[in-house]
Amino acid sequence: MGKWNSSAAAAWLILALAPLQAQETKAATLTALDYIEIQQLVNKYGQDIDTCTNNGYDYADLYTPDGVFIDKYSDDGFSKGGVQRAKGRDELAAASWGGSKGCKDMPWNGWTHLMGDLVITPTADGATGRCYLIMLGEKGPGSVDRDGGYQDIYVKTAKGWRIKSRTHVRSKEWSNPLLQSADRK
Predict the structure, then answer these.
(1) Cβ-contact 64, 161 below 8 angstroms
(2) Coil, strand or helix: which one is 176?
(3) Over the stretch 4-25, which tens digit does the pLDDT of each residue have?
(4) How much is the pTM?
């Protein structure tokens, strides 16, 4: 009978603590306004990187002060499982060809970055997002190309929603393995 009592006590304890544990790991609830503000943040990203406004600092200010841009798209970044290309406001401004680069010789001058099919998921610390990157004009006037996508971590700050981390990934990161090919980016 002692075994039954200890087993029953253990089961009761597990059942009693389960709701507390579920609350600790439960994702935050986002409001409709949170979703709209995150969507606006993602849309502003494309416009700010394309125009190098405020010498690239408008782009940099979309991130948290310690925000990072990670490359998992280029051959180097993909082979290494991701390479941090910029961290912090000054490096992010320079990554958008502003800051110390002064918005000169931008490789994407005349291109348009479009983020499409954004999916936002609440997390305990804020939200994550995933969207496709569509490039207009990258290969000349009228060209339309999908250049992988972005995986983001968003946090709400005193200045509103910001990007904590943005990782540029290849399309095949999200594709069914049966649809992937060796040369597909």
Answers:
(1) no
(2) coil
(3) 455 554 444 455 555 544 444 5
(4) 0.81
